[in-house]
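ARCHIVE CARD
Drawer: 12
Card no.: 0347
Subject: one protein chain, sequence and derived structure
Cross-reference: see card 0346
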Amino acid sequence: MAEQARAIQTRRNILMAAAKIFESRGYQAATISEILTAAGVTKGALYFHFQSKDELAQGVLSEQVDHRLMVPDRSSKVQELVDMVMLHAYRLQTDPLVRAGVRLSLEQQPGLDRSGPFLQWADVVTALLTKAQAQGELLPHVDPAESSDVLVGAFGGVQAMSQAVSDYQNLPDKVAALLRHVLPSVTLPSVLPSLDLSEGRGAMVYLEALSVAEERESALAAAAD
């Protein structure tokens, strides 16, 4: 178990080092030697986990949808969607892996498959909207898949604009504004007043999701022992 834990931590350290390089220099300019130096690992250790710079980039991209930090179930699936968006906005402000993943997903680099995060987010949002529809939270005309594509695409644009204008400092406000504009077009008017879109929502949801993840990991570790 100790060896497995070390391997997991080494992989995490490599991803974090790669994220910092990708975020500051972009995919094309980043080099494996820079990432090795930043991570403080040998070439053999890096290639044990990642065979190429492309695999490193895909690893960073996949961190945008971190299944260890998921929003707990809410009775309102629209609130759960809001919380997921707010959580991602908070992580963009605080997590270099997420920031680097977003930069990579928005860069137009030949040979780099950037579709993964967009498709994953679209699937997650579609699933939540479908559940919201099933329990009567959405307007009758709503197509969950179509609304998901609109929200994911708009969120990507808001992220890019916030990064360019304020280095993500105004992102919570801009995300809340996006949701205030989009949600009335898909959500029943009776649901809207109960939604919490407050500025500190992302940080609160992060702490909640982190607590749940830690409890789950502790339970798994105890079961393994």
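Annotation on reverse: The CA atoms of residues 61 and 102 lie 7 Å apart. The mean pLDDT is 86.
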